[in-house]
Amino acid sequence: MKIGVLGTGIVGSVIADKLVSLGHDVMMGGREAHNEKGQAWASKHPQNAHYGTFAQAATFGELLFACVLGTKTLEALEMAGDANLNGKTLIDLGNELDFSTGKPHIFASWDNCLAERIQNRFPKTNVVKSLNTMNCYVMVNPSLVQGEHAVFMSGNNLEAKTQTRNLLKSFGWTDHMIVDLGGIETARGVEMLMGLWVSLWGVIGNEPFNVGIFRKA
Amino acid sequence: MKIGVLGTGIVGSVIADKLVSLGHDVMMGGREAHNEKGQAWASKHPQNAHYGTFAQAATFGELLFACVLGTKTLEALEMAGDANLNGKTLIDLGNELDFSTGKPHIFASWDNCLAERIQNRFPKTNVVKSLNTMNCYVMVNPSLVQGEHAVFMSGNNLEAKTQTRNLLKSFGWTDHMIVDLGGIETARGVEMLMGLWVSLWGVIGNEPFNVGIFRKA
Q1: Separation of alpha carbons A171 and A24, rounded Å
Q2: Closest residue, chain A, to B110 (C-alpha)
Q3: What sign for the dihedral angle of Cα B194, B200, B205, B209?
């Protein structure tokens, strides 16, 4: 399908690479019409890979991934434009982090959920929060981590969650690993998980890891 | 050993029961000298079980568990008194939640960590955050959940964490399940995990569950 990937950083590149490898037609979108990273990304794929502005990528995609840093997501979506987002599934991978002081600062809280704010601002877009709880290499290759670890989905629209589930399965996630938490408000806890992730990263380092859910014996 | 358990609710009762069953001498502490729940708890054990005020339980214990609702922990510790807390290990199980509106509200955030505030207010007490990320039956009986799920520890004092580890192991946790995240500041993410817990509880219900860490394949 035609997919727009908003964001030209490492997360956007890894997601867009995977989508192209799966045969999708992908436009990566950035702030400027001339973006070196975006153009370099598109040029490395012989076909099915394009670069444009946020608005062009949103127009292009039947489904969209938001892969910008969470603190910039709403700004990027404003640049993408309501008309280009309406009626589409938007899979939001954002985490609101600030590393500018050298130490991470995490903005997610029960009262400050990025995915909820996106859904409120763009009520005609079907926002699904997913994939924000692991590094991007694990997102597109869950077998890097051993066992039945988890990827979460939160969203109000069932069809959008089915689309997301099917994409996740094409990335290698099984139904058993995909945990549908419910409506978009459940993204609160999923975004707050970044607090634990940062501490685990401090203990484990750059090796792949993820959380998972264990059930009754 | 002599252990004080601050809190007469379900978490305090389950922890105190387990400690008595392991042969510890336990005083449960509450706000009032005459507390029906605390006195009923003590009376159901033929020996090694006592009830008193927060100050009496803090005085009694060589090591303390804080099992009050997180929003009341600092108040309970003020009542316990600095002099009775100094030099002791305090294992904090608190989560700052409000259910008074019918829907849960979670106060934990990167800027609002209960365990850090306890440690700052009582600098001579060795605070360890642990066990707050699961229901109390799983805390004292991890085999209710299948597999190598996780219990986290955060704290600045290594000896206090060794004491905590040994108690956790006596509850049935293995070294592999115990994840020492580092200093007390890592309790931020552990407290923020309550956001995900509430959503998982919505999906799974009252059956035992827990999170765990999956490592590289």
Answers
A1: 12
A2: A106
A3: negative
